[in-house]
Structures are given as C-alpha cells and as structure tokens.
Task: structure prediction
Amino acid sequence: MVGEREFRVVLLGLPGAGKGTQGKLLQQTLGIPTISTGDMLREAMNSGSELGRMARSYMQKGELVPDSVIVRMVEETIGSERCAKGFILDGFPRTYEQAKALDGVLEAWGKTLTKVLYFNLPEEEAVRRISGRMACKSCQRMYHNLFNPPPTSGRCECGAELGIREDDKEETVRKRVVVYRSQTLPLLEYYGQKEILCAIDASPTIENVQKEALKALCANA
Ligand code: AP5
Result:
C-alpha cells in the first residue's frame, strides 16, 4: 500500500516482457502481494500434485491451462486475508473468459480493478530476454545472464540454486507468443474500453521501467 490507498492491479505483456520482475518489485514498494499464476502452477508441478501434473501437460507445450482451473485458483487466493488490502496479478487474466470472471468476482465484493499495466516490448527482445533467464528454485526471483546477473554464478541472493524453466525452450517460447497474440492481446481492447489500461515502454532498464510503473499507478492517487 502507498498511504491508505488500495491497489488491485493487473500486469499484461508478452512472455519475457518483465511482468514477473516488475511484479516482485511492486510488491516490495506497495506492500501488497503479487499473485503469479505461472509461479503457482510451477509450485504445484514441483510438489507433484494432481494440479501440477495436469498443468505440466499444457505448460510444456506452451498452451494455456484451462480457464476453470485458473479462475478457481485465483479466486481463492485474492479472497484470502493477505489480499484484503489489494493485490498485483501477474499472468492473469490471459483470456476474455478469465477477464470476465475476474470482473464478476470483484463486482460481487463491491470492488473494481485500479489499473492494468501493459508492458510493451518488441517480440524479438522478449524472446532474447527469455533465452538468458534463470529463476531461483526457492524464492522464484528472476535473473538474466547478461541484463540482471546473480551475485554468485548459479545462485540466488537467498542462497538457493538457480534453474531454467521447462517452458523456456525456444520452440515453446514461440508457441507461447502465438498463444499470447491470439488469446491475451484482445484484453488490451477490453481494458482500454474500461479506461484503466496504461501502456509502459518495457525496453529501458529494470529500474526505469519500475519508475514508470509506479508513476502510472500513483497518478491520480
Ligand atoms: P507465466 O509464468 O505467467 O509466463 P509468461 O507470461 O509467459 O511470462 P514470463 O514469466 O515468461 O515472462 P515475464 O513477463 O514475467 O518476464 P520476466 O520478468 O521473467 O506462464 C507460464 C505458463 O503457465 C503459461 O504458458 C501457461 O501454460 C500457464 N499459465 C500461467 N498463467 C495462466 C493463466 N492465467 N491461464 C492459463 N494458463 C496460465 O523477465 C524475463 C527476463 O528478462 C528475466 O531474465 C529478467 O531478469 C529480464 N528482464 C526483465 N526486465 C528487464 C529489463 N527491463 N531489461 C533487461 N532485462 C529484463
């Protein structure tokens, strides 16, 4: 939270545009949780649960996990006490059905989204960023071998080992981009019509993108 203001924010953008990186930074600054559906699904995969096994079969192919599963998962999370003062959604909604479901849940609670931040990055740059990405196996913090290297080779600043995501193979990334264009990109129009969409140039450094994101969120605060 900044002051007493509540934020209910959605982060949109291509795979590799920096949603996860910015979401984790916004969480620290705003003091509200970032809910990453991708991280939740990867945790389920690591735990070997039934949800994780089901999710892996879609994620390995670069496809979306079915809406019904994702909507239930997000509804439970944002309805919990830790999200009472707001939340940042990273990777959700990704389809029109998910966006409608989110609106329905918020409406039932008498709430609305504060803002949708769209991280705009050319496709080739997004793919280049993903190709050097490493993620902490414990806290999920993201690094990049060139743009954002870890303090010690192969180790997160929390000390845990870094790994490469199963769905970061180039062929799977290209598929994720195709899926994004057909299923998620139409949400720009959806949120544009609601006048809560704010486009941010995601090409500058992580720090400068963060400044722009905060400026956009705190405008009219
Ligand atoms: P998810 O985990 O959400 O992946 P994604 O949307 O494809 O996005 P990424 O995590 O790849 O990229 P990002 O934008 O977070 O970029 P990052 O900050 O890491 O989803 C994975 C899969 O889960 C989906 O394909 C689907 O199967 C399933 N799923 C998830 N949600 C779903 C849903 N709602 N419905 C259905 N299925 C769902 O940055 C990338 C790299 O760039 C990093 O190395 C970072 O250090 C670096 N970097 C970041 N910013 C900068 C910068 N400004 N300059 C230089 N480098 C930078």
The longest strand covers residues 7-13.
